[in-house]
Design a protein that fits this description.
alpha+beta; two-stranded antiparallel ribbon; 2 helices; 2 strands; about 10% strand
Length: about 80
C-alpha cells in the first residue's frame, strides 16, 4: 500500500518527508545516507518501502530498475 505525502512539495524544504518518516520509524541514521524507495515513488512515505543507501546505491537501484534516462546528445 502506498502512503503518499500530502503536504508541501517545495524543493527548498530542509527535510524530505521520507527522511522524517524513516527517522520516526527506524530511528537516527548516519549522515550522508539517502532514504531510498523500493516502490520508486518519491512521494511515498510508507516505512516498509524505505531503505537506506548511499547516493551510489540509489543510482545503481535506478539503473537496475530501468528508471534512468539516457543523456540527450546535443551534437547529433
Amino acid at each position: 500500500m502506498f502512503m503518499v505525502w500530502q503536504g508541501s512539495r517545495q524543493a527548498s524544504r530542509p527535510f524530505l518527508a521520507s527522511r522524517i518518516m524513516y527517522f520516526l520509524t527506524h530511528g537516527p541514521f548516519p549522515e550522508g545516507l539517502c532514504v531510498c524507495h523500493t516502490c520508486d515513488r518519491p512521494l511515498c512515505v510508507n516505512p516498509v518501502h524505505l531503505f537506506l543507501g548511499t547516493q551510489s546505491d540509489n543510482v545503481q537501484d535506478c539503473v537496475a530498475k530501468g528508471r534512468h534516462s539516457r543523456p540527450q546528445r546535443w551534437d547529433s
